[in-house]
Design a protein that fits this description.
This protein is of the alpha+beta class and 566 residues long. Helix content is 50%, strand content 14%. The longest helix is centred in the middle third of the chain and has 33 residues.
Length: 566
């Protein structure tokens, strides 16, 4: 054992048992990530399906702290990996600033934390892996996955309601009852979400130190249990509405139902973990191998045990000294090792070079750049334009390009709604055509509006940008009952400028504006959406009809831009 230790820790990069002071440079490096990390965590909190993230951060801190006394001497390979992770972190943070990407900044922070754990010799790979749960799926694919789960939940709930004889009609993510329309998003809101259950399963696996295969299977079953509990909730809410006229979609009843479903889901996860522990347990050494050599001829057993991991109770017995190094403290190991393991004074390595300090000025410079640009807590508050909040029916004329205004509606929703927190809707009519003109706001990024219509039962027949430098998009929809709709929408900022995709150049548009002097502070993107929806009778639009509808939208779009820019 002494030879192995000395060969693994030879050279200038030998690590002595770490101290809290050794973590100071990494603390400064993480501090440099602060502004963009602040923005990233705000973005997570604005999405209800990620609001479990404080629990994951607390779990990481707890597990890492508990395993801190179990640190070991880190070898040259661990030091080399630590350096590589820190270099990768610096590159990612530079990219995050250039692109104003909070997601890249969070990934950079993860690399810095991993570098610290390796440098300090803390056996916390499992807790570090928990941080992967907070990587937000980009390009709106997280919302797409949730909408897919909602569609599956709607279909399964409808099947269950048909079985028990509850009168209803499914339409997209909507269940239509004789006295009420139930949107599945309302019924499934709460603590039992797909991502939250995956996070709970991962924390269970890390807590009990399950194998990688065990943990992945447990997280997969977390998706199943989240879906099952949501189906039960939808069916329960539907029965309460149809049979007892009790509304469980809001108030304390809804919250209590959500907490009960969450508790049942955790119990199901625990039960699944016990089942997996039985099915994936180690086979271990054949007790007859000491008497008959052929008892150890099955070569699949060592392979199975390697995949199964150390197990719950037999880790020390199965893995010997390696398991003791992982699960025991340095003090205990020092007492168990032979005296030869401790080198003499003349053989002791020189104090290691604290190479991580060389990275500190680079990261502090990157942190200062964020502060100067006004990112995160230094940014200007992206207030919603009050002129948009105050829009009324009188802000559009009674006659607009030959269309007559017949109604107006103001809708205010939860800030996390996929349809936007606010909508101002004007209804116009021309002949047999009814047109809905709506200004929806605000959105932090491009809003894929057709996905919202899909959630309400529409099927996309076509979807295409208009082109010619415009950000306008046109789409056509249909329902199984033969109803058709024509949609046109556009996004612009509070100054009436077209939405600019961050992918059009290496530097983010907001950063280009800061460098050019147009603005002096960073603000979170906030976009306004103008849309027009027409349901043509019979599903047919002549060329003249299409031209009149497009002109109506262009007029409406121009008026809204001018109104916001006032």
């Amino acid at each position: 054992m002494a030879t192995a230790i000395s060969s693994e820790t030879s050279g200038d990069d030998i690590l002595q048992p770490p101290t809290l002071a050794g973590g100071l440079p990494f603390g400064l490096i993480l501090l440099a990530h602060g502004p963009l990390l602040y923005v990233y965590l705000l973005q997570l909190w604005d999405r209800p399906h990620y609001q479990f993230f404080p629990l994951v951060l607390l779990a990481f801190g707890y597990f890492a702290t508990v395993r801190w006394p179990q640190r070991r001497m880190s070898g040259s390979r661990a030091v080399a990996m630590s350096r590589l992770l820190l270099l990768t972190s610096a590159v990612l943070l530079s990219f995050a600033i250039a692109r104003l990407s909070p997601l890249a900044a969070y990934l950079s922070g993860m690399m810095a934390v991993g570098s610290c754990l390796l440098r300090m010799g803390v056996p916390a790979l499992g807790p570090w892996a928990l941080l992967l749960l907070l990587l937000r799926i980009p390009y709106g694919q997280d919302v797409a996955a949730i909408q897919m789960m909602q569609r599956v939940t709607t279909r399964l709930s409808s099947t269950a309601l048909d079985t028990i004889g509850v009168e209803h009609f499914p339409e997209g993510n909507i269940l239509v009852f004789p006295s009420r329309t139930l949107f599945v998003e309302e019924a499934c809101s709460g603590v039992v979400s797909m991502l939250a259950m995956i996070a709970c399963a991962a924390m269970m696996a890390v807590w009990w130190r399950r194998s990688l295969l065990h943990g992945l299977l447990l997280m997969a079953t977390g998706i199943f249990w989240a879906g099952a509990m949501n189906v039960i909730r939808v069916v329960g809410i539907a029965i309460a509405l149809s049979h007892y006229d009790v509304d469980l979609t809001e108030g304390w009843r809804h919250e209590a139902m959500g907490l009960f479903a969450f508790a049942v889901s955790l119990g199901a996860l625990f039960s699944t973990d016990r089942l997996l522990l039985f099915l994936l347990g180690r086979i271990g050494r054949n007790p007859l191998a000491g008497y008959w050599a052929y008892a150890e001829e099955n070569r699949l057993v060592p392979l199975w045990d390697l995949c199964a991991g150390p197990g719950e109770a037999g880790a020390h017995e199965s893995y010997g000294d390696h398991a003791q190094d992982w699960h025991s403290s340095d003090h205990e190991q020092g007492a168990k090792r032979p005296a030869a393991a401790s080198p003499s004074h003349s053989q002791r390595p020189r104090a290691p070079r604290r190479w991580e300090w060389a990275f500190v000025p680079v990261f502090l410079l990157l942190g200062a750049a964020q502060a100067v640009a006004g990112i995160g807590p230094f940014s200007a508050a992206p207030a919603v334009r009050q002129v948009a909040i105050g829009l009324t029916a009188d802000d559009l004329p009674e006659d607009l390009d030959g269309w007559k205004q017949i109604a107006f509606e103001a809708k205010d929703r939860d800030s996390s709604s996929a349809f936007g927190e606010h909508s101002r809707i004007w209804t116009y009519q021309r002949g047999s055509h009814i047109a809905l003109l709506s200004l929806d706001f605000v959105f932090p990024e491009w809003h894929a509006l057709p996905a919202c219509y899909q959630a309400t039962g529409w099927q996309v027949q076509s979807w295409s940008p208009v082109g010619g430098g415009s950000t306008r998009v046109e789409a056509r929809f249909a329902k199984p009952d033969g109803e058709h709709a024509f949609l046109s929408f556009d996004l612009f900022d509070s100054q009436g400028q077209d939405y600019v995709s961050p992918g059009e150049s290496f530097l983010h548009p907001q950063l280009r504006r800061i460098i050019s002097g147009e603005v002096n502070r960073f603000t979170l993107p906030s976009y306004y959406q103008a849309q027009l929806l027409v349901g043509p009778p019979g599903g047919f639009l002549s060329d003249d009809d299409q031209q009149r509808i497009r002109q109506l939208f262009l007029t409406f779009d121009a008026k809204m831009r001018l109104r916001l820019a006032e």
